[in-house]
Amino acid sequence: MTYREPDGVDEQDWDAYLKVSGYINQIPPTVLQSAQSSRPTFQLPSLPKVDLGWVAIAGFGVLLGYMYMTATPTEETNVTLWDKILSTSKNIVTFSANHTEAAIDFINPAAEMQDTVRKGDSIAGFVVTDDMNGVRDYGKHAAIDLGTPEGTSIRMPYDGTIKPVEDDNCGYGAYIYLKQAPNYQIVLCHLLTPPLEGEFKAQEIVARSGATGRGSGPHLHVQLWKIEITADGQVKRVGKPLTPSKDLLTRLLRSF
Ligand SMILES: [Zn+2]
C-alpha cells in the first residue's frame, strides 16, 4: 500500500488527512505506523556553502584597498618606503600592521637609504651640523648632529624605555629602546642633565639637549644601532650604525 501526500497538505496535517480520508480506520495499526514513519518530509533546496574565513579575508582586502586609495600623500610615501624596506631586508618581517608606521619611521637598513639625512638639512627647525659621513679624531662620526640650543626639549618618538648612557665622551646621554622595535637602540648624547629613566609614552619630554662631554658646542648627537640581546641579557650591537630617518629626528625634537 502506498500513500501519497496531496499537494497543499503539510506534515502537521498528515494525521488529520489520514483520518479524514478514512485510511486511519481501515488499515492495521502496524501498517499505519509504517505509513506515518515514512511520511514525506519537506527539504529546503540546499544553499551554496560560504566559508566565513574567505569572506573575512575578502573584506579585509577591500578595507586595505580603501585605505590605500584614500591615503594622504605622506602615507603613500610611507607605503612605498615600507615596501622598499621589506624588499631589501630579510630580518624585518614581524611587525604587525599597528607597528608599521613606527618601523618605517626609524629603521633604515638598506644601503641605498644611508644618505637620507645630510649636513645642512633642516629638521624640526634645527640644522644638521654633521651627518653619518663626518670624520673625527676617533674615526667616523656615524651619527647625526643637530644644532640645538641648550634646553631644547627631547621627546620620546614612540612608547619605549630610556636608560642612561655610561660614557664620559658622551657627557650626559641616553639610550632609547622603542617598544615597537626592540631590536634597535637610539643613542642621544651631550644632554643638559642626566636623562629621565624608565618607561615613557610617545611625546613625553625625557631630556633637554646640552653641551656636555666631548663636543665643540651645544648640539644633540643621535646614533641608531641594530642590537641583539645575548643569552646572558647583554645588549650587543650588530653591524655599523644606521642613519636615523628625518621622521625619527623630527619626533625627537620639538622646541617649546
Ligand atoms: Zn655627534
Structural class category: alpha+beta
Shape by Cα distribution: elongated
Helix content range: 25-40%
- The CATH class name of the largest domain reads Mainly Beta
* Overall number of domains: 2
Biggest pleated-sheet summary = 9 strands, antiparallel
Here the CATH topology of the largest domain equals: Glucose Permease (Domain IIA)
Structure ligands: zinc ion
Give the name of the CATH superfamily of the largest domain.
Answer: Glucose Permease (Domain IIA)
* Residue fraction in strands: 15-25%
Termini Cα gap: 98 Å
Taking pLDDT < 50 over at least 5 consecutive residues as the criterion, the unreliable ranges are 1-18, 20-25, 72-115
Q: How many helical stretches?
A: 7
**Which whole number gives the mean pLDDT?**
71
Name the quaternary structure.
Answer: single chain
**What is the H/E order?**
HHHHHHEEEEEEEEEEEEEH
